[in-house]
Structures are given as C-alpha cells and as structure tokens.
Design brief:
The chain has 120 residues and is mainly α. It is built from six helices and no strands.
C-alpha cells in the first residue's frame, strides 16, 4: 500500500500533496513504529523467558534482523516524512516545484538515495 501511494499517485495540487504526505506520516507513526516495538517486545519475550534463546532457531534470528531493519527504516523515513508534511503544509502549491521538497520525497528514501549522503 505504501509503495502504491508513493509511486502511483501524482498530486496535482498543494492540498493533494499535503494529504499524501500526511497519510505517509500516519502510516509511519501508527503502523511502522508500533510494529517495530511489538516485534521487539515479542522477540525479547521469546528470547529471555523461553528455552528458545536469542540464536537457537533461525526464525528468531530473522525476527531480530527484521526488528533492526524496521527500526532503522522507521527512524529514517519518519524524519523525512515529518519534514515533508511541514513543507507541504506551509508551501501548498509552491511545494510542487520546490527543490527542497522534491529532494526529500519518500520515493528517494525508499530507493536508497538518502544513503548516498552518508557515504564517503
């Protein structure tokens, strides 16, 4: 659903752009972050209070890897989405052509362009 929202919708007005950014913010705040927290808590419960341990079964290792990836994705995506919502709310129609807004789009974050900033 997130990919459909990012790559299929093409906002034609500032209001549509703001609503798309706001929907992405809601998905991040209410689904990705709580999902990462829930996966962390169940992984911790399985690892500490059962005989399964942290690394005894492959599915627990996968669960920990997914927790780490989900947390990193949520943190990185959240900061860019929050910036986009503020910019889209302030600029509305001007945000469609604003280079600051277009450089922070979520599609670029999902495609990995944000990692380019941190590479040597």
């Amino acid at each position: 659903m997130l990919c459909l929202l990012l790559f299929i919708t093409r906002p034609e007005s500032g209001d549509e752009l703001y609503m798309r950014s706001r929907i992405l913010q809601i998905v991040d705040d209410y689904f990705i972050i709580p999902g990462a927290f829930g996966a962390f808590m169940t992984g911790l419960i399985y690892s500490i209070w059962t005989n399964w341990g942290f690394f005894r079964h492959p599915w627990i290792i996968v669960k920990w890897v997914m927790i780490i990836l989900q947390t990193i994705f949520g943190i990185m995506l959240g900061s860019f989405i929050n910036d986009n919502v503020v910019i889209a709310d302030q600029l509305r129609d001007a945000a469609l052509t604003d280079p600051l807004f277009s450089s922070k789009t979520c599609g670029q974050v999902c495609c990995g362009e944000v990692f380019r900033q941190y590479s040597c």
